[in-house]
Amino acid sequence: MDFIQNLIKKLFPHNIITHHINDLTNEPSDQNNITNDICISIEKENKSRQFCRLTIEQLITLFEHCPVSDRTLYEVISLSKPVKTYNDYEYFIDKNLDIENHYIGPISSLKIFYYFLNIPNDTIDTIEIYTQKILKQFLILEASTNEKISYHFIHSKPSVLFENVSTLGIFLKAIIHFLLFSIIQHKCTMFNINSPPESCTISNLIQILAPYVGILRKHCTSCTISIPYVSIADISYLLVRSAADKWTTAIDVNVYSKNQQFRLFNSVKYGKNNPLIPSTTFPFDSSLQYSFSDILKKSLITLIENHQIPKIYFKNKNFILHFPLYSNSNSTTTIPQNLLNIKLINDHIEHSYFLNLDINTNTNQNSTSSLHLNKSNKLDLSIPDVQIFITFVQNIITSDPSHQGYIHSCIRGTYNKSLLFFNIAGHYKYCPKKKDHHQHNNVAIIINSKAYTYSIRCKDPECNNTILSWKKIK
């Protein structure tokens, strides 16, 4: 057993360590919210995970006794809990050599999030004061290297919460869609293209903008939309080239699924040596001093220290803000949406085709079903190793907003027990041989749990139902 598992058993002998996340997340959500327990996952050598539930006091103790190099810890973000806003911002430097200033994209993203999560303020601030206000709310953790720019943005002193991670994911996708659409709609002497159709997805908008990214960054520094201190040029820095040399967004929109695992503060990926530490470029609330345990608490997505903070819900294709009436009551009241700048997003959703093409989620506050999982009841989570690879498969089949798929069923190989066949339904029908999606025939994603590789089997007759090339799971 690895060092950290031994340490947990030594420090907290009554705590359960399990391979199955459901063993920890099937408890009543009300009980979890009251205790504020933190569900963590432990990354192991073969990239598999083990899971454990700790109190915040136990988690702090674990950090005190565990060296950073062994701290391969992630917070499991349950769909049943309210959450702080968080996101993962990253890109590879060698694929984006034209970006000379690596701080433009991160600070622009923070300004955008601050704008949509706070009450409008007509006070004219300097950019310095405005930035200070932002950094009083947002904790920025950094794990950048010479190869990769990597930040975690966490709304550590939240002005508003989200009912669950699903609603947060929809909200951030809607913001990105709004931003990209706004860039295309703006006209200036150097940029003037036809407005896209209402049916454009985020992927469509990225493809439209890709040829113009250099022009936007260089010539649209004075072109603006409603967000203070953010130009069209600044927003264009959110578009980056991926490791596969394809245009995408630096903000990862695929980290909002059920039981998402988000790396903990001052923890490392297995075999790596770049822990997530507070950014010195974007210091958190620099007017105050915080202890190590304070920063750890502030960095936790599901640790809500003040339950009187208003929450954003998603109902009837609109974001709605609710505020608790009394501290000893479960009652809530709706606050006019113009108290936040979410009216812009609601208006955008109403007049675009965004929801029909970019969203495939379950936002019922009391639901424990996955965003893309359990569209049928044929997924047997009791099959060993299935739970470990669900998130990996989901990330593949939901990476393209215009071709969203879901896991219909999973079976183990009859002769080779190391093989897991995830049968995919929905609109994900990608064929690596064709390098495009088929119209009708589905695919299966095959996992070799022993070799830690995966492949896609295309069920289209023209592909002869063959298994295509195997790739390493990273």
TrEMBL record:
It comes from the Eukaryota. One of its GO terms (biological process) is error-prone translesion synthesis. One of its GO terms (cellular component) is nucleus. InterPro entries: PRIMPOL. It is an enzyme of class 2 (transferase). GO terms for molecular function: chromatin binding; DNA-directed DNA polymerase activity. Coiled coil: none annotated. Signal peptide: none annotated. Its EC number is 2.7.7.102, 2.7.7.7. It catalyses: DNA(n) + a 2'-deoxyribonucleoside 5'-triphosphate = DNA(n+1) + diphosphate; ssDNA + n NTP = ssDNA/pppN(pN)n-1 hybrid + (n-1) diphosphate. Belongs to the eukaryotic-type primase small subunit family. PANTHER family: DNA-DIRECTED PRIMASE / POLYMERASE PROTEIN, DNA-DIRECTED PRIMASE_POLYMERASE PROTEIN. This is DNA-directed primase/polymerase protein. It comes from Rotaria sordida.
